Amino acid sequence: MLSVEIYDSDYENKWCPGCGNFGILAAMKDAFAHLDLAPHQLLIISGIGQAGKTPHFMQCNMFHGLHGRALPLATGAKLANHNLTVLVSSGDGDCYGEGGNHFIHAIRRNANITLLVHNNQVYGLTKGQASPTAEIGFVTKMQKGGVIMEPFNPLAVSLALGIGFLARGFSGNKAHLSQLIQEGIMHNGFSLIDIYQPCVSFNPVNTYAWYNERIYDLAEEGYVPEDFEKAMALATNKSDKLPIGIIYKKEKQSFTEKIPGLAAGPLVDNAYDPARLQAVLDELSA
Q1: Cα–Cα distance for residue pair 54/45, rounded to 1 Å
Q2: How many CA atoms lie within 13 A of 276 on its CB side?
Q3: Which residues neighbour 140 within 8 Å (Cβ) at sequence distance 6 or greater?
Q4: Count of domains in the chain?
Q5: Domain encompassing residue 23
Q6: CATH number assigned to the domain comprising residue 150
Q7: Is the Cβ–Cβ distance between 73 and 96 less than 8 Å?
Q8: What is this structure's pTM?
Q9: pLDDT above 90 for 189
Q10: Which of 9-13, 137-141, 206-210 has the highest mean pLDDT?
Q11: Alpha-carbon span 56 to 33, nearest angstrom
């Protein structure tokens, strides 16, 4: 097992003290160390938001993209080098709001990418507006009368689109979240881990204490994640109890495995021939 210290970055961290992002960052490092993934074997891509800053605090390959646009970048990176371990670090607003369309089609493609969504029900970087996952009645500085729309349900949407690996974690349980991240990375195909993450500055409702009173571990309940109907029932259940763990898992062919041209190896290993490229461009422009 590698040491978690090899992933440490000297970039100054300005997350609020007590932010749930710290637990997610620690779980990521722990998961990578357990999988013996060296920094050069990792690529973490993010969008905009406090969750989007995560790759800055990691020693690895990283790309900080535009708001909601991390998933198409990750798909392109996986196409270029399908031997690279690619993760996306995104917030609930960044991924389910601005990036909602990309989220849908990333699941359909089933590229071998692990998506970690820091779900705190608010836009933390822009000072606390309600995110797509905020519950009805949630009051913010922008929604003074409370949220009036139904919350976006990433679990049910993912299942409806045929996702192969779906899990939910909690930033307050590093060991459990680390194991989920490891399972997501090892899964061959698109993996979503939606993570309950308290925002200590702008969400006074969904606190660490609030979650600790409601969360329970599916594995301890003997839950079997291979049953689609049970997974969908769990995803749509409006009970006050909040399950964490692997909700659904099904192996199927990944996106890059369906592309014959990648069977010989990653595109990044191919020799670059500018003459052949120019010939293609000339043919297309004729």
Answers
A1: 9
A2: 4
A3: 122, 128, 129, 130, 134, 147, 202
A4: 1
A5: 4-285
A6: 3.40.50.970
A7: no
A8: 0.94
A9: yes
A10: 206-210
A11: 18
